[in-house]
Every structure is written in C-alpha cells, then in structure tokens.
Amino acid sequence: METLHLDNPVFGTYAIVSALLVLKVMGQGWMTVYRMMRSNAGLVSPEDVQLGALNKSPDPSQLELNDYVDRSRRMHRNDLENIPGFWAVGLLFVTVSPPLVLAQVLMYGFLAMRLIHAVVYATRQTHEVRATFYTIGSLIVIYMALHVLGAILA
Asked: What would the mean pLDDT of 55-67 be, rounded to a whole number?
C-alpha cells in the first residue's frame, strides 16, 4: 500500500480533515465579507470607500474599526496562523505510518478544536475558554511533529 494514497486509511483521514479545514479557512474569509456587507463597515483599504456597485454610499467612517467585522477577521487570521502547521506536519505524520486510531484521534481532534475555538471566539467567551481549545489543538500539532521526528531519528 502506498503511503500517500487514498487506500491508506491514515492518508484518507488526513485528506478528509485537510479538506474540511480548507473549507473552514475559506468560509471564515467569506464570513468576514458577509459581515462587512451586512454592517456596511469594517473596510480596511482607502479604495474600499469609493463609489461602486457594492458601496453606493461610501463614507470614510467605513474604515473605522468595527468589532463585528474585526472579530471575524481575527478568527480568520488565527486560522491562518494555526491550520497550515497541521497541513504540513499532518502530511509528514502520514508518511511515518502511525496507527490508524492514533491518527484519527489526533487529526479529528485538531479539527474539533478548531471548530470549537471558532464557536467560542464568535460567541465572545473568555480568553481562558478560547485558549483552552487553542492549546489542545496546538499540543496535538506539536505531538505530531515530535512523533515524526521520533520516527525519523529512531
């Protein structure tokens, strides 16, 4: 069985989780756009306040910080800071042939932590609650990296 082939259930798990995380990242970007359009605020570039089909009443105040929009933008940035590490080490993790159950627990666990983190962030829970889910997800990725290094250096 080839390691990076869908006949390998560990790679299949990685592929499913990675695809769902792509949808998460892209969806968060679209959520930010939706929030900007809904609130008619939270724009970031001076050219965004020019008259156009999507901005029929431009106003410089549209460039002011808007927490409704910026919260989504911060969530997106957080995903972009954390998910690529999973993509990279997850693929390496597949190549060292971990046990399927371990791979599934770690990979689906990371996905669950990112989804819960998003809900917690969107609903304005305390930093401690949000940090708990970030930390668990981060420790999963760190464990996977250490597992890969251990397999290579063994």
From this structure: 91
Q: What string of DSSP letters covers the chain?
A: --TTSTTSHHHHHHHHHHHHHHHHHHHHHHHHHHHHHHHT----SGGGGS-BTTBSS--GGGGS--HHHHHHHHHHHHHHHHHHHHHHHHHHHHHT---HHHHHHHHHHHHHHHHHHHHHHHTT--HHHHHHHHHHHHHHHHHHHHHHHHHHH-
The domain 9-153 having CATH identifier 1.20.120.550: the answer here is yes
- Amino acid 1: pLDDT: 58
The residue ranges of every structural domain in the chain are 9-153
Q: What is the pLDDT of residue 26?
A: 98
User: Quick one: tokens of 21?
Assistant: 């995380």
Residue 6 pLDDT > 80, yes or no?
A: yes
pTM of the model: 0.93
Q: What is the CA radius of gyration of the chain?
A: 19
